[in-house]
Amino acid sequence: MAKDTSLVSLLDRHIRTLSLSIGERHCKKPDALKRAASYIEAELKATGLAVSVLEYEFRGQNFANIEAVLAGSEPDGGDIVIGAHYDSEFDTPGANDNGTGVAAVLAIANDLKDYRPKSSLRFVAFANEEAQFFNTDGMGSMVYARALKAQGRHINLMFSLETMGYFTAGAGSQRYPEELQDLGLPDQGNFLAFVSREDCLPQLEKTVSAFRLFSNVPCEMLAADENIQGVSLSDHMSFWKQGYPAIMVTDTAPYRYPHYHQPQDTPDKINMKVYKEAVLGLTATIAHLAGKS
Ligand SMILES: [Zn+2]
Fold first, then answer.
1. Which of 1, 211, 226, 264 is in the most buried spot, having the most CB atoms within 10 Å?
2. Ligand 1 centre and the CA of 32: distance in Å?
3. Predicted confidence (pLDDT) per residue in 181-213, tens digit
């Protein structure tokens, strides 16, 4: 495991590079999107893992998902995918959405590079999650999940790391979609949320009990109808579409974060102390779920 101080500076560097040095990154800023992809590729290569740049074309424009694989000792046992989208919405630097998700993927890959898992781990940064591509054939995670299915890959679980750095103790700071308002969920936005569908409840329970063992960061789990607003709203949806179990790990983004999709989504809004602990807890959880060979 990385030392606490070095992990904070690593996460901080990733988030600052993506949101400040590169800034807005999407189809209308193709150079920035490419710079983000190159940065992620270089960071994953630096771990020594096998890295692939998976290019694809959509509406005449080229995009790429970036993947690093840590091969497990039981190749037929099913893989775990740890993914995050690296594009930003228009007119936002996307520090929390989704600099925090990408930084977490990079940090977890770096931390586990010498681990000997039973299940293979696939660390992936996806293009094109945001609005204009969501649920289209141009969405990076859609292209990636379909390719896994076409190759006949067995995926035990996919984690979608989505906007996971904003934590606040303010009363009433946590909001919910209408259907979830009477479930007695906390009204303080100080927890990490694990969100999935009812059919993924066994994987969700296993994940959350491991996370609670390894981390003091408060967390909540929700197995809900995918049609409830927000429940499907990231790359895990693409995996559900292929019949793969998938869980979103998030600070709940629009239900908590005041700067969601705004120009003010900058690194200073991220609670580095809690976010770092969340990344540490997730790393240990993923190592545990993958098994040690
Ligand atoms: Zn996002």
1. 211
2. 17
3. 989 999 999 999 999 999 999 999 999 999 999
Which tokens go with 96?
């929390």
Q: Cα(12) to centroid of ligand 1, in Å? A: 18
CA of 222 to the centre of ligand 1 (A): 19
- What is the whole-number distance in angstroms between the Cα of residue 122 and the centre of ligand 1? 19
Integer Cα distance of 28 and 32 in angstroms: 9
pLDDT value of position 212: 98
Q: Give the side-chain half-sphere CA count within 13 A for 179.
A: 10
Ligand 1 centre distance from Cα of residue 116 (Å): 31
CB 136 within 8 A of CB 125: no
Give the pLDDT means over successive 10-residue stretches in the chain (293 positions): 77 98 97 98 98 97 98 91 98 98 98 97 96 93 98 97 97 96 94 98 98 98 95 97 98 97 98 98 98 95
At 60 the three-state DSSP class reads coil
- Per the prediction, the chain carries an average pLDDT of 96
Q: How many CB atoms are located within 10 Å of the residue 42 CB?
A: 11
Using the mean position of ligand 1's atoms as its centre, give its distance from the Cα of residue 3 in Å. Answer: 28
CA of 163 from ligand 1 middle (Å) equals 6
CA of 75 to the centre of ligand 1 (A): 31
Domains and CATH numbers, the chain: 4-290 (3.40.630.10)
Dist CA 102 CA 110 (whole Å): 12
Give this prediction's pTM.
0.97
How far, in Å, from the CA of 85 to the mean position of ligand 1?
7
Closest CA to 15 of 140, 122, 161, 147: 161
Rounded distance from Cα 92 to ligand 1 centre (Å): 11
CA–CA dist 181, 222 (Å, integer): 13
